[in-house]
From TrEMBL:
Molecular function GO terms recorded: acyltransferase activity, transferring groups other than amino-acyl groups
Protein name as catalogued: GNAT family N-acetyltransferase
Keywords from the named record: Acyltransferase, Transferase
Domain (N-acetyltransferase) ranges: 3-177
Pfam families: Acetyltransf_1 (PF00583)
Length: 177
């Protein structure tokens, strides 16, 4: 299958939101409860307009259909879309800070077909071109396997409380040097 990888643009927002919701609901079932998934969708997951404006968010299309999205950031926010209240948009220093891998989601019908790897390789390449020597991310439990396979190292699980509901995430990092 041939995939088209491109930079996300503002008019992609609605399609990205739909993809995020479908991915989170279908691919997270064996890791999270329904209430955890819905809280994450309502308050954490979602489009990050800064990533689109910075041209560091990418989409993958197959036959004109959006099947994956993900990006990297040179901003301090580690995770969360526009509606996540705990955001910090200041810029990072590539010499001392880690670039952030952000908001990876794949359509369930296209899962485990290399789309996440395509996106992650593009993000790694772009972060390196900007001089970053280190990457970090906050993985959802379904994403840990991909990131581990791509050389990211796990730290201990952390819990974030969202709308009174605890949700487990896994901090991960990778050296680029």
């Amino acid at each position: 299958m041939n995939y088209d990888l491109r930079v996300a643009i503002p008019k992609d927002k609605t399609a990205i939101e739909c993809l995020i919701e479908k991915s989170a609901r279908d691919l997270s079932r064996e890791y999270y409860t329904d209430s955890q998934i819905e809280a994450a969708i309502a308050f954490v997951f979602g489009v990050d307009s800064d990533l689109i404006a910075d041209k560091t968010y990418f989409v993958v299309e197959a036959d004109g259909e959006l099947v994956g999205c993900g990006g990297w950031s040179q901003r301090k926010t580690l995770f969360g879309g526009d509606r996540y209240s705990n955001r910090e948009s200041g810029l990072l220093n590539p010499k001392t800070d880690a670039a952030k891998i952000r908001a990876f989601f794949v359509h369930p019908q296209w899962a485990r077909q290399g789309i996440g790897r395509i996106l992650l390789n593009k993000c790694i390449q772009e972060a390196q071109l900007q001089g970053f020597q280190w990457l970090e991310l906050m993985a959802t439990l379904p994403g840990v396997k991909l990131y581990r396979a791509m050389g990211f190292e796990e730290k201990e699980k952390v819990k974030y409380q969202v709308a009174g509901i605890d949700i487990d995430f896994v901090p991960m990092s990778k050296s680029l040097i």
